[in-house]
Amino acid sequence: MWPVLVIAVIALAVWQKDNIKQVLGVSMTTKELIQAYYPLTVQHGTAYGVEPSLLLAVIKQESDGNAKAQGPTGDYGLMQITQPALTDYNTATNNHLFLSDMLKPENNIKVGAWYLSLMFRNTGNWRQAVRAYNAGLSRVQTKLNAGVSYADSVFNHENTIKNEMWSV
Length: 168
Fold this sequence. Notes:
By secondary structure, the chain is mainly alpha-helical. The protein is 68% helix and 0% strand. It has helices at residues 2-16, 20-24, 30-48, 52-63, 83-93, 105-123, 126-135, 137-142, 148-165.
């Protein structure tokens, strides 16, 4: 049974021209992550005013490119979307997405880009926005160190991604 299933998954990946790691929902290298998700980060980053490289960096930090990632606190997908963030998105955009929809890269990146943009509008700079994306807006506004190491990691990933983009 297992060999047939593995062959079917590989055939599906080849047929859809997807990266096999994307289909299986496992971690990706930076180059694979760029190849798999750059078009969606351009589309949704442009729509919400977020650099594609920053969206890719958040994806790298949050899920390492695993579209099926589920965190222990109910975070879903590439950008680890939470129910409160999804509720805010649905209310603001008159959508009706569910957490299970966050396992689809298209939906996850769209909601993540919207939410990161919202954090930027509330904080006025990208470093604070990334901190708020991770730690929550109220914690960033009241606690000096909330989300600092997370933001450092994301911006380090962004630098690596920008360097890798030249070689993709």
